[in-house]
Amino acid sequence: xxxxxxxxxxxxxxxxRIANQIIDVANARLQDGAHPEExxxxxxxxxxxxxxFVESHRQGKDADPGQVIxxxxxxxxYYLGRHxxxxxxxxxxxxxxxxxxxx
Length: 103
Description:
The protein is mostly helical. The protein has two domains: about 10-60, no CATH class; about 65-103. The chain is built from four helices and no strands. The longest helix has 24 residues, at about 35-60. It is globular, with a radius of gyration of 15 Å. The mean pLDDT is about 85.
């Protein structure tokens, strides 16, 4: 699966441009007065829905969400570090490892 992983992607890749367009929509909803939790829940629903759509068409009935979940966890950890570089990542790392082991 092609992906733009943190640290080795350029800001001009199609996937990053799409992500920035989606973030623009989220920011517009915030400016309209939507609560951040509602916006993030909508983004997560959309990401899960579209990811499931793509995986089911790519892999059929045997679609395995493990790779998508691992990629999301890596991206989340990367962006948490960018938004809050002084916070310890140890708790998040444990949570990610726990989620991986439960798959």
